[in-house]
């Protein structure tokens, strides 16, 4: 890497950090009360909703992780990004009206209404809190990898990202998360398109095609042949099941001006994300070809060696945009599930607006600290993200769907399904454990099966007189 680039990159990053905090400061009036902090009072239009939808998906798994997968499997490395895009369409078709018309701010609102019991909702809230720690940590890991690629202290970079996001998300709540995500999505779009254009203009495709013809490069480097239907299903389904229980989905849909506007934003978000998903995979594939790069370095090796300083700085800002746009949604999630659902809902507290702000600040600081600590010790980005989605789906998917399709389902069966699902996930994390039918059913989906069985069987048990 040309060390002369470093001053330009640092200046651009400092300006970018300052801009994000400034946007948060501009939107502070949008979070003048706690309800506005969480939902903007149902005032979001298509652009803000797209920012929330795309920003919540295009994290490190999409950009850095997509490039890492591309270095191994070529354009098939875009599978995660394409799955993210398609999941937004599934939300529009199956969840959008259900969430909006019922005014559900979280899945806990649904479980309370369906089961008339606090326990299933509390399980969802705690599961969401735990999974959000992993999700935020995964984003911070990407930021750390970026700073290390620049020969800068990775831990310092990770902490800087955490502090900046905490500042602007605390200032303006959900509006700040969506508004900054709009800017960040634009930066990502320009950055990835610029990188792809530069590589194309320098003959990257021609060079790689020649290598394929010569037999020195796998054909899958420039096509989707490295992706099987089963492999894509294994990537798509845990993400989709996790989306059903994903807290930011509920808040995004519920913040829209209308259900129709929310659906339109989902469809447009998908159209933007699919072509974007192909770009990191191509960049990573080229990195493997040209620099023998792999893992997280596949993305950074290309941009640091192939691009002019100002373009490189823009791309790095794009990666940080991807990281930060997902982190801020995670912080808003924490405020919803812990402060609104548990503190105000389950514990029946009625704090003042001033007290709510203090509680939210303490919650956000605590979870940001925990997530940063995890990020500084973990190693695999996509592995962490897949574990997060599997855990959340195992705890919450069956109680949600079961409550809709099985009338006999009750609070007991919902709790049993969550416990069995989570235990199955924990068992799957034990080294050497292999579930049956592993060649047919992806490990991330298998826990849903025993969870559903538990839900069905417990729902058939007779109620005691006390329960009645």
UniProtKB/TrEMBL annotation:
<comment type="similarity">
    <text>Belongs to the sodium:solute symporter (SSF) (TC 2.A.21) family.</text>
</comment>
<protein>
    <submittedName>
        <fullName>Sodium:solute symporter family protein</fullName>
    </submittedName>
</protein>
<feature type="transmembrane region" description="Helical">
    <location>
        <begin position="121"/>
        <end position="142"/>
    </location>
</feature>
<feature type="transmembrane region" description="Helical">
    <location>
        <begin position="225"/>
        <end position="244"/>
    </location>
</feature>
<dbReference type="GO" id="GO:0022857">
    <property type="term" value="F:transmembrane transporter activity"/>
</dbReference>
<feature type="transmembrane region" description="Helical">
    <location>
        <begin position="264"/>
        <end position="287"/>
    </location>
</feature>
<dbReference type="Pfam" id="PF00474">
    <property type="entry name" value="SSF"/>
</dbReference>
<dbReference type="GO" id="GO:0005886">
    <property type="term" value="C:plasma membrane"/>
</dbReference>
<keyword id="KW-0472">Membrane</keyword>
<feature type="transmembrane region" description="Helical">
    <location>
        <begin position="440"/>
        <end position="461"/>
    </location>
</feature>
<dbReference type="InterPro" id="IPR050277">
    <property type="entry name" value="Sodium:Solute_Symporter"/>
</dbReference>
<keyword id="KW-1133">Transmembrane helix</keyword>
<feature type="transmembrane region" description="Helical">
    <location>
        <begin position="154"/>
        <end position="175"/>
    </location>
</feature>
<feature type="transmembrane region" description="Helical">
    <location>
        <begin position="187"/>
        <end position="205"/>
    </location>
</feature>
<feature type="transmembrane region" description="Helical">
    <location>
        <begin position="388"/>
        <end position="406"/>
    </location>
</feature>
<feature type="transmembrane region" description="Helical">
    <location>
        <begin position="80"/>
        <end position="100"/>
    </location>
</feature>
<dbReference type="InterPro" id="IPR038377">
    <property type="entry name" value="Na/Glc_symporter_sf"/>
</dbReference>
<feature type="transmembrane region" description="Helical">
    <location>
        <begin position="46"/>
        <end position="68"/>
    </location>
</feature>
<keyword id="KW-0813">Transport</keyword>
<dbReference type="InterPro" id="IPR001734">
    <property type="entry name" value="Na/solute_symporter"/>
</dbReference>
<feature type="transmembrane region" description="Helical">
    <location>
        <begin position="6"/>
        <end position="26"/>
    </location>
</feature>
<feature type="transmembrane region" description="Helical">
    <location>
        <begin position="413"/>
        <end position="434"/>
    </location>
</feature>
<keyword id="KW-0812">Transmembrane</keyword>
<feature type="transmembrane region" description="Helical">
    <location>
        <begin position="359"/>
        <end position="382"/>
    </location>
</feature>
<feature type="transmembrane region" description="Helical">
    <location>
        <begin position="307"/>
        <end position="338"/>
    </location>
</feature>
């Amino acid at each position: 890497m040309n060390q002369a680039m470093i001053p330009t990159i640092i200046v651009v990053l400092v300006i970018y950090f300052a801009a994000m905090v400034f946007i948060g400061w501009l939107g502070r009036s949008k979070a003048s009360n706690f309800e506005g902090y969480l939902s903007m009072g149902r005032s979001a239009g298509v652009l803000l909703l797209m920012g929330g939808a795309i920003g919540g998906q295009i994290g490190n798994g999409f950009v850095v992780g997509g490039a890492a997968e591309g270095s191994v499997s070529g354009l098939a490395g875009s599978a995660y990004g394409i799955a993210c895009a398609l999941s937004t369409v599934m939300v529009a078709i199956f969840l959008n009206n259900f969430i909006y018309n019922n005014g559900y701010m979280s899945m806990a609102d649904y479980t309370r209404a369906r089961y008339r019991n606090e326990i299933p909702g509390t399980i969802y809230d705690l599961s969401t809190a735990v999974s959000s720690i992993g999700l935020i940590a995964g984003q911070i890991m990407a930021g750390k990898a970026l700073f290390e690629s620049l020969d800068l202290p990775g831990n310092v970079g990770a902490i800087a990202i955490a502090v900046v996001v905490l500042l602007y998300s605390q200032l303006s709540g959900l509006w700040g998360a969506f508004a900054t995500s709009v800017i960040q999505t634009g930066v990502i779009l320009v950055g990835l398109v610029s990188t792809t254009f530069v590589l194309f203009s320098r003959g990257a495709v021609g060079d790689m095609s020649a290598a394929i013809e010569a037999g020195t490069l796998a054909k899958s480097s420039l096509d989707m042949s490295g992706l099987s239907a089963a492999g894509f299903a294994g990537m798509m389904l845990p993400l989709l099941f996790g989306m059903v229980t994903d807290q930011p989905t509920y808040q995004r849909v519920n913040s829209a001006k209308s259900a129709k506007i929310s659906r339109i934003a989902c469809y447009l978000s998908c159209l933007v994300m699919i072509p974007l998903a192909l770009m990191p995979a191509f960049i990573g594939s080229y990195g493997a070809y040209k620099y023998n790069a792999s893992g997280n370095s596949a993305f950074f090796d290309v941009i640091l060696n192939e691009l002019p300083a100002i373009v490189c700085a823009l791309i790095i800002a794009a990666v940080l945009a991807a990281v930060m746009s997902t982190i801020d949604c995670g912080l808003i999630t924490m405020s919803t599930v812990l402060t609104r659902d548990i503190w105000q809902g389950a514990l029946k507290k009625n704090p003042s607006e001033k007290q709510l702000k203090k509680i939210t600040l303490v919650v956000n600081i605590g979870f940001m600290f925990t997530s940063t600590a995890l990020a500084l010790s973990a190693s695999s980005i996509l592995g962490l993200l897949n574990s997060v989605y599997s855990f959340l789906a195992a705890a919450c998917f069956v109680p949600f769907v079961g409550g809709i399709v099985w009338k006999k389902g009750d609070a007991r069966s919902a709790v049993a399904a969550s416990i069995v699902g989570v235990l199955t996930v924990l068992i799957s994390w034990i080294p050497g454990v292999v579930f049956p039918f592993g060649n047919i059913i992806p490990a991330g989906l298998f826990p849903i099966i025993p969870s559903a069985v538990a839900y069905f069987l417990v729902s058939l048990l007779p109620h005691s007189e006390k329960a009645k």
